[in-house]
Amino acid sequence: MLQAVSFTLPAGCLVGIIGPNGAGKSTLIKAMLSLIPHRGRTLFDQQDLHAVARHVAYVQQKSGLDLTFPITVRECVALGRQADANAFGHVRGAKEAVAQALAQVGMADFAARPLSQLSGGQLQRVLIARCLVQNAQLLVLDEPFVGIDVQSEAAIMAVLRAQKRAGKTILIVHHDLKTVPDYFDWVVMLNRALIAAGPVATTFTPDNLAATYGLPHPPAKGAPDASAIFH
Amino acid sequence: MLQLFFTDLAEFHFLQNALITAVAVGIVAGVIGSFIILRGLSLMGDAISHAVLPGVALSFMLHIPMVIGAAAFGILAATIITLIKQFSAIKSDTAIGITFSTFLALGVILIGLVHTTTNLFHILFGNVLAVQDGDRNLTLGIAAAVLVLVALFFKRLRLTSFDPLMAQAMGIRTNFYHFLLMIMLTLVAVVSMQSVGTILIVALLITPAATCYLFADRLVVMVIASGLLGGLISLVGLVFGYTHNIAVGSCIVILGALVFVVCFPFSKKQHLITLPLGGKNV
């Protein structure tokens, strides 16, 4: 159960959602996207988020996908265009948009590959390309960096930063505290309830980290010590 | 064996009806079965094929077309199972178990009450050699309608089968496609009763699709191959069953299982045996 969560985020920024295992990070984004029963509302630009769902791109955790599903990289990325399709799923301009998105994430050469033959990093790049194809205003990614190589993580961050510069808002459920100051502009800290939400510079503090991760005492000084929290 | 079959095929109208019906059912069951197994709904296929039985009996009682009663009960069962799954702590396999056994029992009782020439054994295990012209035409009509629906909604069915959460997040009504599939599944179950019967329909739905799933890298390939394989095993099962005077429905099911067993070690997804000219196993 996740409760007492209320915060406002500025548009056009990278937001990290952090907290210990079981804190309710994935639950929060699923509730925001109306994927699970919940109480409360999520507004996007003064409108109910569910009413503007076409502008929302969601990438669930890799573990939630059936990676043996018979689908190629090209077909998977093209799914993003379904947001603009009619009830039969037909939409124009998908081919060009898919080729462009795959080039942006450095996966153009893999277009004909089955999804089942990709590494974790390659798969995540494909899922990001799917978001690009959708041209959504809000990107919601659930732990996109888990189990992927350093190069893929860097490539994905470069694409996401470019998206941010284009005015998109990006919410990411994230685990690696060491990279939080580098990756995000804002941070939402959860542990079964909202602990803190705000700009990284003022919110990602030792006190808030201690409260979020249930540590008895905050680190004495300096930057938050992620290794102390995880090990 | 083949000569006898084709001689009789040219001579007997009932055998022509049987051939057309069996192949049409094999094709359409293979196509729908692809989506059923990819969505993890194999048990749902089993449940709906059993749940149509009371609808069949009521149709006889009320003198309405069998397909209407059967479809109504198939949809009712799918709705009950979906509602139990969505709004309770009961898991879907439990919901399916409760629903389908109840409907099957109700169907057996109602069939017993109906004074009809239709034999319960034939409903449960099929009798493709007794297919009338009307049944054949109904099967062809339903098979054509289902194939057209799958072609029309293919992209949405692929999206909602692969990543339903993403589809839901972008505002697509995934429940609409779920129930569309359930309606098609029910219709296929109704027409399959003639060839393999309600007990064995699930095999025709699942086995060809599962065999093609072992090799397919694209859904469109899997769906087409599964339809063709379903049609082929129905044809061969009919020939074998007819010429050896054994139950055709059971022949079709066992043949499908044999094809699966032979193919299984060569699957790209199992990595047991790599074919010299096969694709790269990763």
UniProtKB/TrEMBL annotation, chain B:
It is found in: Cell membrane; Membrane. The chain crosses the membrane at residues 12-38, 58-84, 96-117, 137-154, 175-193, 199-216, 221-240, 246-266. It comes from the Bacteria. Pfam families: ABC-3. The keyword Glycosyltransferase does not apply. Keywords: Membrane, Transmembrane, Transmembrane helix, Transport. InterPro entries: ABC_BtuC-like, ABC_TroCD. It is a multi-pass membrane protein. PANTHER family: ABC-TRANSPORTER METAL-BINDING PROTEIN, IRON TRANSPORT SYSTEM MEMBRANE PROTEIN HI_0360-RELATED. Belongs to the ABC-3 integral membrane protein family. This is Iron chelate uptake ABC transporter family permease subunit.
